[in-house]
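Illustration: MFS transporter.
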Amino acid sequence: MSMQNKKAAVSNQSTLNKSDNMRKKAGRRWVMLGVLSLGVAFNYLDRSTLSIALPYIMKDIHMTPAVTGVILSGFFWSYVIFQLPAGYIGDKIGPRLTQGFASIIWGLSTALNALSRGFFSFFGLRFVLGAAESPLYTSGSKAIKEWFPKKERSFASGTFNNASKLGGTVATPLLAVLITTIGWRLSFAVVGGIAAIWGFIWLKYYKTPRQYNSITEEELNLIESDQEEVKEDVSKELPKYAVAKLFKQKTMWCMMVGFFSINFVSYFFFTWFPTYMINTYHLKLLTFGFIGILPGIAAMIGGWIGGIACDQLYRRGYSTTISRKVPLIVGLLLSCVIGLAAISHNIWFTVTVLCIANGAATGAGSVVWTLPADVAPNSNMIGTIGGVQNAAANISGIVCPILIGVLLGISNSYTLPFIISGIVALVGAFAYLIMPKLEPMKLH
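Result:
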């Protein structure tokens, strides 16, 4: 080999080594985020199955709108009840065991819907599903805290939150095809089995950054670069009844009301949206599958914008408080347009309005899960604060489907539910506006 060829070979090898090092340096935390996000996508695929199959189930089992609303709320009763225990357990045993076993249980409970015959079996399995999925966001938030520096956390949280929209978006056409091909019962079995398999993968794969032998020192230093403030505070003893003291904090109440409002708008899309579109505009399920995907795509775009906007504001020197509040308030104000669907008689105007509302709500939601780490007195309270926030927020999942079902049974119209949703979004924007400075809460 000539000297020139040797130099070229050495240069090429050096370039490959640098490329490999850069991949390793940037790779581990993003791979972990990808695996976590995949689990959230499967989670929302499972959640969406009932609402997509609902027009078929209501015909087969002859359920009234009011009864259907109660079944749709079954998930959220247990989801709310188990938020605090789930947050506490997640803080104690960590994201690996919490997420892994929860996913296996929620997958099995989804699959068993294939055997449901009426109200009690549907409601009972939705209740189990809600309990199993309750740790998802609190332990996911803790995993992001373990794997990402503060300056990247909003983007990571936005990606994590966006994965739920990906699951819901993919679910619409996928389940439409699946249900029309193999029926709604077998469709439950298929999507439930996928979630259970992910649970086993998570149990095998997840580790903290320092437990990974293959992680580079550069990436480890980057991850830990701005977590010193939490490390210094971990040793501080919390007062007795720390959880009870959270409810005396204005910040906590603003977080709860704001997130309730975001979810109130979002949960329309995960409960009554398919039935509304199919019955109001007389669509076939397959046709809806490809129109109904649009609000989900808007939600994914909105989620990315919300997370990126928050990170960019923070990187440009704005305070944590400003960088979080701006996407939250703007997102909820834009979500108010859902009220315009009440006066629409045109399918494309309706879809446009609902796309804006869902995208804006998701943009706000992408920031929500950065707040527990911002205000926790120490890292051992992140999951608990997230659990309190999420429990309050998901009361909307009980109220929204039941309210729509009752109003639909009385008036056979979605007008009032849309108007109420717009008002709730406005209240949420106000809650975030008056939220105090984001700093560790003083519980002593």
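Reading the tokens back as a structure: The chain has one domain: 32-213+245-433.
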